[in-house]
Amino acid sequence: MNIGIDIRSTLKKQTGIGKYTFNLINALGQIDKANDYYLYSQKKLLDFKRRLPKLPAGNFHHCVDYFKKGPDKVLPEPDIFHTSSYDLTKPRKAGKFILTVHDVIIKAYPYGHSEKTIKEVDGELKRVLGEADLLIADSHNTKSDLMKFYGVQDVKIKVIYPGVVLDSQSLSRAKSRDSLEQYSSSEAEGRVEKYILFVGTIEPRKNIQGLIKAFNLLKKEHNIAHKLIIAGMKGWMYEDIFKEYENSEFKNEIIFKGYVNDKELAQLYRNASVFVYPSFYEGFGFPIVEAFSHGAPVVTSKTSSCGEIAGDGALLINPENYKEIGEAILKIISDSSIRQELIIKGSERAELFTWQNTAIEFLNCLTNT
Fold it and tell me: What is the value of pTM for the model shown?
């Protein structure tokens, strides 16, 4: 088969869709030598900032659209064309058109988006949902949202979990009770700085305000020794979050790290006493699995896809209740047996979410469409 894949998102500073697409094509390159892949991208002739990703195998080919003519003008006739973006129409030459939907935030959690943005995205999504022959959803929660808000039939949606790049060294340590006990002992002796970690964009949906309130409560009522580290770039409507921070009597122990690279991020996960992700809504929730893979015990929401992805590997909370968030954090930092159990369960859970598994299911989906 000739398979066209929209990789425009990989040429920008990689966000969630860019990382998804980049990792998917690399995983497909490792398992599929039979089909030909044509990677559709757009860039100007003299644009040297946007770089094409390295081709993962000999059966992968770049098809660059320098003049924005559309996939029909630059791709060989594809049997299947796949995209994760809503702005492309179905190529006339394509046999089948497959769309991956990562979330339905504009409907499920519209707060934080302007009316104009909601209207534009909603219109594009409605159009492309009608054109697609098959939809891939990142989670059963996203599938449910597509059925609820857009009336999509169950048979038209296939759930394929994205993968996460696993840290084999951290996974190995997490599975060893001896190393866990040694780690907990060294922490008790003060050789590891104690901190609670959050990773994500600073925006209302992530519920950072609730986390800061929980942290304030733990400091005030339990005098915990931990700091709170918040790693991630500013998103939008973050003013109230920073007001919460400014009004905290423990603001000197709350650290906003901003953007951190992959190496720094891995270190933050590994040394965290607990990772907390109390988001109101997620299509998938990558940081949950990243934390699992690096051996961090996790507290996350029971709502949207967070509980689905975390399974029994985390303590699940109601994100609307900051006291419940605080209670879950306290359980982990005050009880080493609970902490160790969560690290082990989390590491086992992480191994379900590999890019190889994603690519295998994706390829099966293409061949059976």
Answer: 0.90
